[in-house]
Request: fold
Amino acid sequence: MMEPQLSWYLALSAALFTIGVTGVIIKRNVIAMFMCIELMLNAVNLTFVAFASFFQDVVGQLFVFIVMTVAAAEAAVGLGIIIAIFRNRESLDVDDASILKL
Amino acid sequence: MLVLLFILFGGLAIGCALAVVAQRNPLYSAISLVGVFISLACLYVMLAAPFIAAVQVIVYAGAIMVLVVFVIMLLNVEEEERGRGRLKFLVPTAIALAAILIAEVAFILVTVQEFRVSPATGVGLTHSIGSQLFTRYLLPFEITSILLLMAIVGAMTLARRGGLLSPNARVIPGVTTLPRSLVDPKAAPDDLRAVEADSTGGAARLLGLTDLRSQAKREES
Reply:
Protein backbone atom coordinates (compact mmCIF):
# COMPACT_ATOMS: atom_id res chain seq x y z
CA MET A 1 0.00 0.00 0.00
CA MET A 2 1.36 3.35 -1.05
CA GLU A 3 1.46 6.37 1.23
CA PRO A 4 1.84 10.04 0.27
CA GLN A 5 5.54 10.85 0.40
CA LEU A 6 7.18 13.96 1.82
CA SER A 7 8.19 15.11 -1.66
CA TRP A 8 4.55 15.13 -2.76
CA TYR A 9 3.67 17.61 -0.07
CA LEU A 10 6.71 19.72 -0.91
CA ALA A 11 5.78 19.73 -4.59
CA LEU A 12 2.20 20.77 -3.76
CA SER A 13 3.52 23.53 -1.52
CA ALA A 14 5.88 24.74 -4.25
CA ALA A 15 3.02 24.83 -6.76
CA LEU A 16 0.84 26.85 -4.38
CA PHE A 17 3.71 29.25 -3.63
CA THR A 18 4.38 29.72 -7.34
CA ILE A 19 0.72 30.45 -8.03
CA GLY A 20 0.87 33.02 -5.22
CA VAL A 21 3.98 34.70 -6.67
CA THR A 22 2.38 34.79 -10.11
CA GLY A 23 -0.73 36.38 -8.65
CA VAL A 24 1.23 39.08 -6.82
CA ILE A 25 3.04 39.96 -10.05
CA ILE A 26 -0.01 39.84 -12.34
CA LYS A 27 -2.75 41.30 -10.16
CA ARG A 28 -3.34 45.03 -9.94
CA ASN A 29 -6.05 45.10 -7.32
CA VAL A 30 -4.52 45.63 -3.85
CA ILE A 31 -6.93 43.24 -2.14
CA ALA A 32 -6.26 40.50 -4.72
CA MET A 33 -2.49 40.93 -4.21
CA PHE A 34 -3.07 40.71 -0.48
CA MET A 35 -4.92 37.41 -0.92
CA CYS A 36 -2.09 36.05 -3.06
CA ILE A 37 0.34 36.88 -0.23
CA GLU A 38 -1.89 34.88 2.12
CA LEU A 39 -1.69 32.02 -0.38
CA MET A 40 2.12 32.11 -0.26
CA LEU A 41 2.10 32.09 3.55
CA ASN A 42 -0.15 29.04 3.45
CA ALA A 43 2.16 27.23 1.05
CA VAL A 44 5.04 27.74 3.48
CA ASN A 45 2.83 26.54 6.33
CA LEU A 46 2.19 23.31 4.42
CA THR A 47 5.96 22.77 4.13
CA PHE A 48 6.40 23.32 7.86
CA VAL A 49 3.64 20.88 8.79
CA ALA A 50 4.88 18.26 6.34
CA PHE A 51 8.43 18.40 7.73
CA ALA A 52 7.12 18.40 11.31
CA SER A 53 5.07 15.32 10.62
CA PHE A 54 7.68 13.35 8.71
CA PHE A 55 10.53 14.17 11.11
CA GLN A 56 8.27 13.66 14.14
CA ASP A 57 9.22 17.04 15.56
CA VAL A 58 6.63 19.43 16.95
CA VAL A 59 8.70 22.59 16.36
CA GLY A 60 7.51 22.93 12.79
CA GLN A 61 3.94 23.17 13.99
CA LEU A 62 4.93 25.85 16.50
CA PHE A 63 6.37 27.83 13.60
CA VAL A 64 3.07 27.46 11.75
CA PHE A 65 1.29 28.79 14.82
CA ILE A 66 3.52 31.88 14.87
CA VAL A 67 3.22 32.35 11.10
CA MET A 68 -0.56 32.37 11.50
CA THR A 69 -0.29 35.07 14.18
CA VAL A 70 1.91 37.15 11.89
CA ALA A 71 -0.60 36.63 9.08
CA ALA A 72 -3.43 37.84 11.30
CA ALA A 73 -1.45 40.94 12.28
CA GLU A 74 -0.59 41.49 8.64
CA ALA A 75 -4.26 41.22 7.68
CA ALA A 76 -5.30 43.81 10.26
CA VAL A 77 -2.60 46.35 9.38
CA GLY A 78 -2.68 45.65 5.64
CA LEU A 79 -6.42 46.11 5.37
CA GLY A 80 -6.12 49.31 7.42
CA ILE A 81 -3.57 50.58 4.89
CA ILE A 82 -5.85 49.53 2.03
CA ILE A 83 -8.76 51.49 3.53
CA ALA A 84 -6.50 54.52 4.02
CA ILE A 85 -5.33 54.33 0.38
CA PHE A 86 -8.91 54.02 -0.84
CA ARG A 87 -9.94 57.07 1.16
CA ASN A 88 -7.20 59.17 -0.36
CA ARG A 89 -7.38 58.00 -3.96
CA GLU A 90 -10.86 56.47 -4.46
CA SER A 91 -9.18 53.52 -6.18
CA LEU A 92 -7.65 50.16 -5.29
CA ASP A 93 -5.41 49.94 -8.36
CA VAL A 94 -1.76 49.71 -7.34
CA ASP A 95 -0.78 51.78 -10.37
CA ASP A 96 -2.68 54.71 -8.85
CA ALA A 97 -0.71 54.39 -5.62
CA SER A 98 2.76 54.13 -7.15
CA ILE A 99 3.99 57.27 -5.40
CA LEU A 100 3.66 57.51 -1.66
CA LYS A 101 2.87 61.21 -1.47
CA LEU A 102 -0.57 62.60 -2.17
CA MET B 1 -6.76 5.50 0.35
CA LEU B 2 -4.46 8.23 1.69
CA VAL B 3 -3.09 8.71 -1.82
CA LEU B 4 -6.61 9.29 -3.13
CA LEU B 5 -7.29 11.81 -0.36
CA PHE B 6 -4.00 13.57 -1.09
CA ILE B 7 -4.85 13.81 -4.78
CA LEU B 8 -8.36 15.04 -3.98
CA PHE B 9 -7.39 17.76 -1.52
CA GLY B 10 -4.16 18.69 -3.29
CA GLY B 11 -6.00 19.06 -6.57
CA LEU B 12 -8.71 21.06 -4.85
CA ALA B 13 -6.09 23.36 -3.31
CA ILE B 14 -4.32 23.95 -6.62
CA GLY B 15 -7.58 24.46 -8.49
CA CYS B 16 -8.85 26.96 -5.94
CA ALA B 17 -5.46 28.74 -5.95
CA LEU B 18 -5.62 29.07 -9.74
CA ALA B 19 -9.13 30.44 -9.38
CA VAL B 20 -7.86 33.03 -6.87
CA VAL B 21 -5.45 34.35 -9.48
CA ALA B 22 -7.77 33.97 -12.49
CA GLN B 23 -10.91 35.59 -11.09
CA ARG B 24 -11.38 39.27 -11.82
CA ASN B 25 -13.88 39.95 -9.09
CA PRO B 26 -12.04 40.09 -5.72
CA LEU B 27 -15.04 38.60 -3.94
CA TYR B 28 -14.83 35.41 -6.05
CA SER B 29 -11.09 35.33 -5.35
CA ALA B 30 -11.84 35.48 -1.62
CA ILE B 31 -14.30 32.59 -1.84
CA SER B 32 -11.73 30.52 -3.78
CA LEU B 33 -9.14 31.36 -1.13
CA VAL B 34 -11.45 29.91 1.51
CA GLY B 35 -11.46 26.71 -0.57
CA VAL B 36 -7.65 26.66 -0.51
CA PHE B 37 -7.61 27.13 3.26
CA ILE B 38 -10.11 24.35 3.91
CA SER B 39 -8.39 21.83 1.63
CA LEU B 40 -5.08 22.68 3.31
CA ALA B 41 -6.74 22.03 6.67
CA CYS B 42 -7.76 18.59 5.40
CA LEU B 43 -4.14 17.96 4.36
CA TYR B 44 -3.00 18.97 7.85
CA VAL B 45 -5.33 16.35 9.33
CA MET B 46 -3.75 13.77 7.01
CA LEU B 47 -0.33 14.91 8.28
CA ALA B 48 -1.39 14.16 11.89
CA ALA B 49 -1.69 17.83 12.86
CA PRO B 50 -5.30 18.21 14.03
CA PHE B 51 -4.57 21.29 16.16
CA ILE B 52 -3.05 23.21 13.29
CA ALA B 53 -5.95 22.12 11.07
CA ALA B 54 -8.46 23.52 13.55
CA VAL B 55 -6.52 26.76 13.94
CA GLN B 56 -6.27 27.02 10.16
CA VAL B 57 -10.04 26.85 9.79
CA ILE B 58 -10.72 29.20 12.71
CA VAL B 59 -8.06 31.84 12.06
CA TYR B 60 -7.63 31.78 8.28
CA ALA B 61 -10.98 30.65 6.91
CA GLY B 62 -12.79 32.36 9.77
CA ALA B 63 -11.18 35.53 11.03
CA ILE B 64 -8.86 36.68 8.23
CA MET B 65 -11.26 35.93 5.40
CA VAL B 66 -14.14 37.64 7.21
CA LEU B 67 -11.91 40.70 7.49
CA VAL B 68 -11.01 40.56 3.79
CA VAL B 69 -14.61 40.05 2.65
CA PHE B 70 -15.72 42.85 4.98
CA VAL B 71 -13.22 45.25 3.41
CA ILE B 72 -14.24 44.17 -0.11
CA MET B 73 -17.89 44.86 0.72
CA LEU B 74 -17.03 48.13 2.50
CA LEU B 75 -15.03 49.55 -0.38
CA ASN B 76 -17.45 48.38 -3.10
CA VAL B 77 -14.65 47.00 -5.25
CA GLU B 78 -15.32 46.89 -8.97
CA GLU B 79 -14.00 44.19 -11.27
CA GLU B 80 -10.51 44.90 -12.46
CA GLU B 81 -10.07 45.49 -16.15
CA ARG B 82 -7.46 43.60 -18.06
CA GLY B 83 -5.01 44.70 -20.70
CA ARG B 84 -4.92 48.37 -19.76
CA GLY B 85 -1.79 50.29 -18.89
CA ARG B 86 1.92 49.97 -19.30
CA LEU B 87 2.56 46.84 -17.22
CA LYS B 88 1.48 44.30 -19.84
CA PHE B 89 4.94 42.75 -19.96
CA LEU B 90 4.48 41.53 -16.41
CA VAL B 91 2.26 38.61 -17.46
CA PRO B 92 4.91 36.75 -19.51
CA THR B 93 7.50 37.71 -16.88
CA ALA B 94 5.38 36.18 -14.16
CA ILE B 95 4.82 32.99 -16.16
CA ALA B 96 8.56 32.70 -16.89
CA LEU B 97 9.45 33.21 -13.22
CA ALA B 98 6.87 30.62 -12.21
CA ALA B 99 8.28 28.12 -14.72
CA ILE B 100 11.82 28.67 -13.37
CA LEU B 101 10.64 28.19 -9.78
CA ILE B 102 8.75 25.00 -10.67
CA ALA B 103 11.80 23.68 -12.55
CA GLU B 104 14.05 24.35 -9.55
CA VAL B 105 11.67 22.56 -7.21
CA ALA B 106 11.35 19.61 -9.58
CA PHE B 107 15.15 19.37 -9.83
CA ILE B 108 15.51 19.37 -6.04
CA LEU B 109 12.77 16.81 -5.56
CA VAL B 110 14.32 14.50 -8.14
CA THR B 111 17.89 14.77 -6.85
CA VAL B 112 17.20 14.68 -3.11
CA GLN B 113 16.70 11.11 -2.00
CA GLU B 114 13.48 10.10 -0.34
CA PHE B 115 13.37 10.25 3.46
CA ARG B 116 12.56 6.87 4.92
CA VAL B 117 10.22 8.13 7.58
CA SER B 118 6.49 7.91 7.96
CA PRO B 119 3.97 10.38 9.40
CA ALA B 120 3.91 10.42 13.17
CA THR B 121 0.78 9.95 15.20
CA GLY B 122 1.25 11.74 18.53
CA VAL B 123 3.15 14.84 17.42
CA GLY B 124 0.49 17.32 16.43
CA LEU B 125 -1.75 17.06 19.45
CA THR B 126 -2.62 20.11 21.51
CA HIS B 127 -0.78 18.72 24.51
CA SER B 128 2.64 18.45 22.85
CA ILE B 129 2.28 21.81 21.09
CA GLY B 130 1.23 23.57 24.29
CA SER B 131 3.95 22.07 26.44
CA GLN B 132 6.64 23.13 23.97
CA LEU B 133 5.09 26.54 23.37
CA PHE B 134 4.95 27.50 27.03
CA THR B 135 8.34 26.10 28.10
CA ARG B 136 11.08 26.09 25.51
CA TYR B 137 9.55 28.54 23.04
CA LEU B 138 8.06 30.98 25.52
CA LEU B 139 10.08 33.94 24.22
CA PRO B 140 8.77 33.75 20.62
CA PHE B 141 5.30 33.37 22.05
CA GLU B 142 5.64 36.56 24.10
CA ILE B 143 7.17 38.42 21.15
CA THR B 144 4.15 37.34 19.13
CA SER B 145 1.86 38.93 21.71
CA ILE B 146 3.78 42.22 21.39
CA LEU B 147 3.41 41.96 17.62
CA LEU B 148 -0.35 41.55 17.99
CA LEU B 149 -0.48 44.59 20.27
CA MET B 150 1.41 46.62 17.67
CA ALA B 151 -0.99 45.39 14.99
CA ILE B 152 -3.99 46.50 17.05
CA VAL B 153 -2.55 49.97 17.61
CA GLY B 154 -1.46 50.28 13.98
CA ALA B 155 -4.78 49.17 12.55
CA MET B 156 -6.71 51.59 14.76
CA THR B 157 -4.39 54.47 13.91
CA LEU B 158 -4.65 53.77 10.19
CA ALA B 159 -8.36 53.17 9.97
CA ARG B 160 -9.83 55.90 12.15
CA ARG B 161 -11.19 59.09 10.71
CA GLY B 162 -10.13 62.51 11.97
CA GLY B 163 -12.19 62.67 15.13
CA LEU B 164 -15.62 63.04 16.61
CA LEU B 165 -15.54 66.83 17.05
CA SER B 166 -17.23 69.13 14.58
CA PRO B 167 -15.09 70.72 11.88
CA ASN B 168 -15.42 74.07 13.65
CA ALA B 169 -13.77 72.77 16.82
CA ARG B 170 -10.11 73.41 17.48
CA VAL B 171 -8.20 71.08 19.78
CA ILE B 172 -5.44 72.49 21.98
CA PRO B 173 -3.62 70.00 24.25
CA GLY B 174 -5.36 70.00 27.59
CA VAL B 175 -8.12 72.29 26.41
CA THR B 176 -10.84 71.71 23.84
CA THR B 177 -12.25 74.73 22.07
CA LEU B 178 -15.83 74.18 21.06
CA PRO B 179 -17.99 76.42 18.92
CA ARG B 180 -20.82 77.99 20.86
CA SER B 181 -23.45 76.23 18.73
CA LEU B 182 -22.13 72.83 19.83
CA VAL B 183 -22.72 73.39 23.55
CA ASP B 184 -25.56 75.89 23.65
CA PRO B 185 -28.81 74.60 22.16
CA LYS B 186 -30.22 78.11 22.01
CA ALA B 187 -27.29 79.65 20.10
CA ALA B 188 -27.52 80.34 16.40
CA PRO B 189 -26.04 77.46 14.30
CA ASP B 190 -23.48 79.78 12.72
CA ASP B 191 -22.32 81.28 16.03
CA LEU B 192 -18.61 80.39 15.95
CA ARG B 193 -17.42 82.39 18.96
CA ALA B 194 -15.23 79.95 20.84
CA VAL B 195 -15.92 78.41 24.24
CA GLU B 196 -12.81 77.06 25.93
CA ALA B 197 -13.27 74.14 28.30
CA ASP B 198 -11.91 70.71 29.14
CA SER B 199 -15.25 69.04 28.59
CA THR B 200 -18.76 69.72 27.40
CA GLY B 201 -19.92 69.99 31.00
CA GLY B 202 -17.28 72.63 31.74
CA ALA B 203 -18.36 74.58 28.67
CA ALA B 204 -21.97 74.41 29.80
CA ARG B 205 -20.93 75.77 33.19
CA LEU B 206 -19.05 78.63 31.52
CA LEU B 207 -22.11 79.48 29.47
CA GLY B 208 -24.39 79.34 32.47
CA LEU B 209 -26.30 76.39 31.12
CA THR B 210 -26.15 74.25 34.29
CA ASP B 211 -29.44 75.78 35.40
CA LEU B 212 -31.06 74.44 32.27
CA ARG B 213 -29.83 70.93 33.00
CA SER B 214 -31.02 70.93 36.62
CA GLN B 215 -34.31 72.40 35.46
CA ALA B 216 -34.71 69.52 32.97
CA LYS B 217 -34.00 67.02 35.78
CA ARG B 218 -36.61 68.64 37.97
CA GLU B 219 -39.14 68.43 35.17
CA GLU B 220 -38.40 64.72 34.71
CA SER B 221 -38.96 63.95 38.36
About this structure: Chain B has a mean pLDDT of 79. Chain B touches chain A through 81 residues (CB under 8 Å).
